[in-house]
Amino acid sequence: MKKIGIVTCGGDAPGMNAAIRAIVRVAHARSLKVFGFEEGWKGLMANESKPLTPRSVGGILQLGGTILRTARCPEFARRKSVREAAEVLSLNEIEGLVVIGGNGTFKGALDLSKESDTLIIGIPATIDNDVFGVDETIGFDTAVNTIVTEIDKIRDTAISHERLFIVEVMGRTRGFLALTAGITAGAEVILVPEIKCRMENIFQTLKENSMKGKKSGIIIAAEGVGDTRGLAKEIEEHTQSEVRLSVIGYAQRGGSPTARSRLLASLYGNKAVELLLNEQGNKIVGLQNGRMSTISLEESCAKEKPLDLGLLALANILAT
Amino acid sequence: MKKIGIVTCGGDAPGMNAAIRAIVRVAHARSLKVFGFEEGWKGLMANESKPLTPRSVGGILQLGGTILRTARCPEFARRKSVREAAEVLSLNEIEGLVVIGGNGTFKGALDLSKESDTLIIGIPATIDNDVFGVDETIGFDTAVNTIVTEIDKIRDTAISHERLFIVEVMGRTRGFLALTAGITAGAEVILVPEIKCRMENIFQTLKENSMKGKKSGIIIAAEGVGDTRGLAKEIEEHTQSEVRLSVIGYAQRGGSPTARSRLLASLYGNKAVELLLNEQGNKIVGLQNGRMSTISLEESCAKEKPLDLGLLALANILAT
Amino acid sequence: MKKIGIVTCGGDAPGMNAAIRAIVRVAHARSLKVFGFEEGWKGLMANESKPLTPRSVGGILQLGGTILRTARCPEFARRKSVREAAEVLSLNEIEGLVVIGGNGTFKGALDLSKESDTLIIGIPATIDNDVFGVDETIGFDTAVNTIVTEIDKIRDTAISHERLFIVEVMGRTRGFLALTAGITAGAEVILVPEIKCRMENIFQTLKENSMKGKKSGIIIAAEGVGDTRGLAKEIEEHTQSEVRLSVIGYAQRGGSPTARSRLLASLYGNKAVELLLNEQGNKIVGLQNGRMSTISLEESCAKEKPLDLGLLALANILAT
Amino acid sequence: MKKIGIVTCGGDAPGMNAAIRAIVRVAHARSLKVFGFEEGWKGLMANESKPLTPRSVGGILQLGGTILRTARCPEFARRKSVREAAEVLSLNEIEGLVVIGGNGTFKGALDLSKESDTLIIGIPATIDNDVFGVDETIGFDTAVNTIVTEIDKIRDTAISHERLFIVEVMGRTRGFLALTAGITAGAEVILVPEIKCRMENIFQTLKENSMKGKKSGIIIAAEGVGDTRGLAKEIEEHTQSEVRLSVIGYAQRGGSPTARSRLLASLYGNKAVELLLNEQGNKIVGLQNGRMSTISLEESCAKEKPLDLGLLALANILAT
Q: Cα separation of A284 and C319, whole Å?
């Protein structure tokens, strides 16, 4: 192996740059050349790349976002597009490609692996933490901390006004962010898309809390649970007291990565290069039960990572 | 003067606790007793208070919110309610009352001053910074920093995706937060309620930026400028590229106060007690041109604090 | 089991309060009464305790330090003291005791377990992360992030002045903090007590960096590696350029716990109560390879947690 | 005026980059060309410069340090060196020079103004805030907040251990940082170089605090007050209880500038360009009593900015 490529796809996640830095520097130490394709699959298809060297990735460890930029690329669902990308890889003699992104990205990577001889390694980087076979994705820890810091601030106002707040966080289909942020921020109620929310249960919890003297509270809801504005209204009508909604926006996806997101990025980047040097491909790297491991692209794409329902039960006990 | 009261009203602001601490400890040093009325005007009307001592305000300097809690109190617009409050003050022999809040609160304080012999001093504490005659209110600096930190994070994603973001901040009628956060976060466009936003101007700026190679950008908008979701759509249609909206929520009102918000709280609290000891009332304390000063409740309530249009012009130049 | 106790010993760590909250609320849900002994072993020996209820541990999740306070207690090395503590436990009919602390604390807990019928469970909480049999202690992640944030700031000055900085972090005998903070902050050199530092190696690295165009740099050193001031001088003399020393102090031990430290605290607190309810004792709870597990007090105290030398090697590659 | 230069000298301060950005973009809007000299006076003497454009200063608003780098330059005290710099300015037809730095830098600027026809404007940027005639220097607010955040964390440990901490902050000759950080962090004792510290007063305060039930405490000391390690020992011996020392290091000088430091940088940069366009020089720009103003280099260098002793007295009352 002499030359490898890197591409960052889908939504950005804090720590993507740390992963790029790790790949480039480990590759350099192993005498590999590295090229970065820009703007995700789009740049790969268009053969837009630049060489990456240990110096060109200096000073990016602590930066959010991705220096390679990223973009959504719906046309990559078509075989024609995937073949274009495969040709670019072949043309540039890219023997290994590290694809940094989330679930959707890995589906594209799997398609690409079927059209190309280039070995493909996926590095899981998404704030959603929804990659099967991987304990924790790069960026998840940062996003959780951003949310928790925000809820800590909202709680000041909640307590001062003895008021209920609904905090909506990202997660269109999965509740990992809502659950982990919810338990660590001490949210009174956690709503995730995986579990149907029953209004009577929420009312019951709020009533019990009120009887215990808890006059303020935080309900954290993944965006996938539905209309949070409507939820706020419904609770207002039922409890006869004001409910405020705060939608935590794109700041969740940005910011300087936490130490943990940087550490995962370093470990995952290192492992990716190591696999390529061992002529292995079509795998996703990641911690499994705390140990560096791999899972096949195919298996990870085919399965859904389960939400830890025990953690949800614990969160409810801790919020009593 | 032997006994004074404190009440926090309206929306909470970071540094209200620092102000309470300052009043209590300065008052104690001058042999005054201090009572804190709870939940704003509501608690004053209901005679719900507790004694505050140097020890009972220990450890609150760095806390957001207000330990006295606060509440909206629409009924305080009625003379009957104001008289009830006046009676409570008289009953408790409260000779001086420090009212901590914003514009709306001071209108109530002015009404109260007309029904009561108690000397009333206002301490401006609101993230809106819209109190006439006062350079800066307690909490404003904290809220600005919270917004700027958030925009710094959003910018990571904006650059990575080469995308435009609209960031909506608080400010139903005034643009102080949007303007100061906008210039310090380097927003490409700043929209404030004081100035009618013309779509063609926005389009022109975005077009010029695009030609300069600025492919991402931040538009900061005070909530008072109107429907930001509609604005996002309109820009999307015109520019043919995605625009995202992030509404910065109640975290703006919370959080540990910055050093500056704590400093203002300390200075304002001290000045308030000093005025009462000099038998002065019906004034709002505050920095004016950088110096501790006062303005009459009446004048401050009657006038509107002007927005610094020069600063807005400078912001536009700096965002080129 | 009807009644359990909690005690926090040794140096404080961010997340101790989150652990106390978790224990109390889980215990309450299982109908256990909880008493908190104050100031570590000292308070246990002196029978100074207070009941802890779900409400009395409200609002502490996000606070650094420990509401039970802590203190060094050299006299607990003597059997007489340990017996006194055992008697207090017996007197109060404390059937289970959760001991929150680090290595030194667990040695005391082991001694106590030999003199008392009370079941003892250890919860590892120390920024040093040096407890054998436990992936990560409560507080470690917070301390690492505090250090990394600080180094990110120091790097601004290092780059602006093209200067070398030595950053000393805690760790009298172990290098976990220095290593993890070093790799995630991108330190050019990492010095840990476990590995003898050879000056010629440092000089060699600095020389190579200089030739690569890296004119500034960060050397992170655990306090246990020895005289960092002398090290700074030695490097100054050898490189003929200024070297600055920054000793990161007690802020490492404080601050609001990160989401991860809070999560571990919640998991460990829950597991501790569960073990006691199953009449198990003399164990330390903790993640092992990412899964909740236990290790006997005896084994953990007898063995030394190994430092991950592979991580150190990776750090050196990443800093090229 | 067609061409101006910028140079950053002395210690770096957060917001220097924001000032560079403001100068460049305002100058561009007024059709001025801008050159940046690198590494302070050294680069000016050596004629090492680069053109600065609105695009080349993009993305630096939020960065600590200075992209022009800085260096100490003792040889600039000699007339020969100053003349070299003057010749470089003349050679490059630099009609106006903006010098960003602190007191020492302005002494050099004053010398330079006497040897050169180039108009010189000083922008005060130093965490020390010790420039006469200027309310607040760029970077001061950021450094104060960094210290306060750190002390907030140290207080967790102080309270948990009921222990006294001495926190040493920067300030070799002046106590602005110690005083403002001290009052806003609620330090029990504030020691500044301007006022001789008497041990009996410290002992008295600590004794009184202890009697009030304050068992922990923070003493903040500017480095200029002398041997803080010795101070810690002396207090330990007198109070018979442990005292810890935390020296807050170079992180004080780095980090992303606060909104206020960015705002001052924007205002000062704008004003500097405006003055040059009006053919004015040999002045320092800055807020005076809250309003943009100027002071002559000569006067500012000749006088010493007074420390606000009233603020120190208030701090002592607030810490009761």
A: 25
Same fold, B3-139+257-302 and B141-253: yes
Q: Which residues contact B114 (CB under 8 A, 6 or more apart)?
A: B82
Q: Which helix (H) or strand (E) holds B317?
A: helix B309-318
* pLDDT tens-digit series, residues A241-281: 899 999 999 999 999 999 999 999 999 999 999 999 999 99
pLDDT value of position B219: 97
Residue length of chain A = 320
Chain D residues lying within 8 Å of B213, measured CB to CB = 55
Buried b (16+ CB within 10 A) or exposed e, B206-223: beebeeeebebbbbbbbb
DSSP bridge pairs for A31: none
Nearest to A157 among B12, B153, B161 (CB): B12
Report helix, strand or coil for A109.
helix
- For chain C, which residues score pLDDT lower than 70? none
C117 is catalytic: no
CA pair distance B206, B216, nearest whole angstrom: 9
Residue D197 pLDDT class (50, 70, 90 cuts): confident
Choosing among C32, C142, C155, C258, which should be mutated to test the A contact, i.e. which has the most A CBs within 10 A? C258
Whether D215 shows a pLDDT value over 90: the answer reads: no
CATH 3.40.50.880 fits B141-253, yes or no: no
d(CA D130, CA A101): 49
Q: Rounded to whole angstroms, what are the CA distances from B59 to D59, D157, D291?
A: 39, 13, 35
pLDDT for residue C241: 87
- Using the Cβ of A298 and the Cβ atoms of chain C, whether some distance falls under 8 Å is answered with no
Tell me the C-alpha distance between B199 and B180, whole Å: 22
What value does the mean pLDDT take over residues B279-284? 98
How far is the C-alpha of A304 from the C-alpha of B313, rounded, in Å? 52
Q: What is the three-class DSSP state of A203?
A: helix
Distances (CA, A) of A202 to A196, A199, B128: 12, 5, 34
Give me the mean pLDDT over the B202-208 stretch: 94
Residues 6+ apart with CB under 8 A from B208: none
Strand partners, B283: B121, B296
CA distance D26 to D274: 9
| Cross-strand pairs, C114 | none
For D3-139+257-302, the fitting CATH number among 3.50.50.60, 3.40.50.300, 3.30.499.10, 3.40.50.450 is: 3.40.50.450
Widest CA span of chain D, in angstroms? 70
For tokens 């080129």, what's the residue? B320
Query: Residue A274: which residues within 8 A CB-CB, separation 6 or more?
Result: A26
**CB-CB neighbors (< 8 A) of C28 in chain A:** 320
Is domain D143-253 in CATH 3.40.50.10090, yes or no?
A: no
Please report the pLDDT score of residue D57 as a whole number: 97
> Which residues in chain C have their CB less than 8 angstroms from residue D156's CB?
12, 14, 63-65, 253-255
Domain ranges of chain B: 3-139+257-302, 141-253
Please name the residue ranges forming H helices in D34-115.
41-45, 79-91, 103-115
Task: Tokens for C111, please give them.
Answer: 């001694």
For A286-316, write each residue's pLDDT tens digit. 999 999 999 999 999 999 999 999 999 999 9
Q: How far is CA B119 from the centre of its chain?
A: 23
Q: How far apart are CA C145 and CA A255, in angstroms?
A: 14
- Beta-strand ranges (E) seen in chain A are 3-8, 33-37, 49-52, 96-101, 119-124, 164-169, 189-191, 217-222, 243-247, 283-288, 291-296
**Number of neighbours of residue B288 by Cβ within 10 angstroms:** 15
Q: pLDDT tens across A64-93, in order?
A: 999 999 998 999 999 999 999 999 999 999
CB contact, 8 Å: B25 with chain A? no
